[in-house]
Amino acid sequence: MLHFLGGVVQIDKPDLVVLTIVGGTLAAVVVLELLRFVIGDVYEWIARHAKTKAEIQQIRRQAEKVMAANREAGRVRDQRIAMRFRETSTLQRLEAEREQFESRRVEVWHDLGGPTATGQTLYSADITNSALKNGVIAGMESICPLWRHLHRARIWARTEMEARTGLQQEFSLADGFTVTNLRPVQGAAPSAGPQGAAANQATPSQHRRRDHAAD
């Protein structure tokens, strides 16, 4: 009960206990209501977080699969490029070997006449012309296919310098010819006697092809 003494409110102990219980009850009700709303939000947040985490995991797995597929595709592509490069290199090497074999299989000889004086030695040399060999001479509609093969020349001269000069006059550097591997022919000797020398002088320059495959 409430008592007013001298303007001061006094509450009996039983009433104070009741008020305390009522206040506690009201506070509990308010807290429960707040918890009802807050717990729902917490549950919803937890559910959204779990869903987001699952989506992130799924996206990560998909990204890993895509990266693995890209790596595999890159590996296969690199293997194909390497294989194509090896095949191209092998084909080019075989083609070069075939051309080299074909070039060496057939020899084209250029005989630049016989001996014109005593004391001369027979010399031979290799004759090359890359422009004629590759068929790239400007202004020429057709080039003799024999230039794809090995060309050699024979000439009689007293010295190696004289032989080289004679060959360079016949196969001019200005025309793209190159004279290499000049050497004396072992065992070659001019014909004896004036009749042999006259016959050698009357021998014209000739071009002879020798096929080793037929030997």
Strand order of the largest sheet: 6-4-5-3-7
Mean pLDDT: 75
Structural class: alpha+beta
**DSSP strand count:** 7
Portion in strands: 15-25%
Q: Tell me, what's the shape?
A: rod-shaped
User: Unreliable segments (pLDDT under 50, ≥5 consecutive)?
Assistant: 192-215
Assembly context of the chains: single chain
The largest sheet, given as strand count, sense and whether it forms a barrel, is: 5 strands, mixed
Q: Nearest-angstrom radius of gyration?
A: 54 Å
N-end to C-end Cα span? 145 Å
Count of helix runs? 4
DSSP helix fraction: 55-70%
- H/E element sequence: EEHEEHEHEHE
Biased composition (Low complexity): 184-202
Biased composition (Basic residues): 206-215
Transmembrane segments: 16-39
Keywords: Membrane, Transmembrane, Transmembrane helix
Task: Give descriptors for this structure.
five-stranded mixed β-sheet; membrane; rod-shaped; transmembrane helix; alpha+beta; two-stranded antiparallel ribbon; 55% helix; disordered C terminus; 215 residues; single chain
Structural overview:
- The structure is a single chain.
- With 215 residues, this protein is an alpha+beta fold.
- The protein has a domain at 107-214.
- It is 55% helix and 20% strand.
- The chain has 4 helices and 7 strands.
- It has helices spanning 13-105, 130-134, 160-170, 193-202, and strands at residues 2-5, 8-11, 106-111, 121-128, 150-157, 178-184, 206-211.
- It has a 5-stranded mixed β-sheet with strand order 6-4-5-3-7. Strands 1-2 form a two-stranded antiparallel sheet.
- It is rod-shaped.
- The protein starts with a strand and ends with a strand.
- 7% of the residues are buried.
- The model is unreliable at 192-215 (pLDDT under 50).
